[in-house]
Amino acid sequence: MRPYIIANWKMNGSFDALDEAWGIDEAAGEYRDVDVAICPPATLIAPMADELSYAKAGAQDCHQAESGAHTGCLSANMIGEVGGTLAIVGHSERRQDQAETSAIVAEKLIAAQKTGLEAILCIGEPLDVRDAGEAESYVCQQLAESLVGDIDPAMLTVAYEPIWAIGTGRVAGESDIAAMHAACRAQLVERFGDVGAGVRLLYGGSVKGENAPQILAIDDVNGALVGGASLKAETFAPIIAAAA
Ligand code: PEP
Question: Which catalytic reaction applies to this protein (predicted)?
C-alpha cells in the first residue's frame, strides 16, 4: 500500500506560508512512492492547488449540503472547483468545537465523495475513555457511525487520532496503536469486504520526524496525519522521508 502523509495546517498560515508548501512539494517530488497532501486554511487551497506539482491540496472540512444558508461554510463542490482533491471530515477539533456528531460526519463524508473528493475520516477517543479501558469500543463505534450509506472505499482514508495525543507531544504507545489499527482494519473489512483491506489507515497525534520511523513501522499504519510538525517544510519533510 502506498504510504500517505497528510499535513493539517488548522487555522495557521497566511500567504507567506506558501513558501513552506513549496518546500513540502519539493520533498514530495523527492519521495514519489509516498502520497503527500496539504490541508491549509481554505484561503490557501486555490493558490496551492495551482502551483503544487507532487503534493495534493485539500480542505480541513466540508459542509454536508451542496449549497444554501450556511454562513461561513464551504461545500465539497467549492473545494473541488478551486483544485482541492480531498477533505478531512470529523477532526476531533470540529467534533468538539462545532459539536459535529458522527451522523453529521457521515453526511459530510458522502458529500465529499459525491463531488469526487477523497474523504479523510478522523476518529479517536478522549483520555477519560482510554483510561476507562473503553478506547477500542468507542473508536469502533465512531467508525461504524461515520461510515453510513453509500461510501466508496477507494476514495476513503481513515485517520486514528487519540484526542489526548493531538498537539500535546504525547504519542500513543506502539502496542496501543497496533491494537487500534487492527481493530479498525477488521471493521473496514467487515464493512467493505476485501476492499476494506486496501483502505489506508493513518495515525495522528504528535507525529514528528523523530518518532515517525517507529510509528510508520507499526503493522497497519499506512501513513500519518500531522498537525504541528506539518507547518514547516523542514519538520514535515523528515516525516515524508520516513514513510518512503
Ligand atoms: C492533528 O491535528 O490532526 C494532529 C495530529 O496534530 P498534531 O500533529 O499537532 O498532534
Answer: D-glyceraldehyde 3-phosphate = dihydroxyacetone phosphate; L-erythrulose 1-phosphate = D-erythrulose 4-phosphate
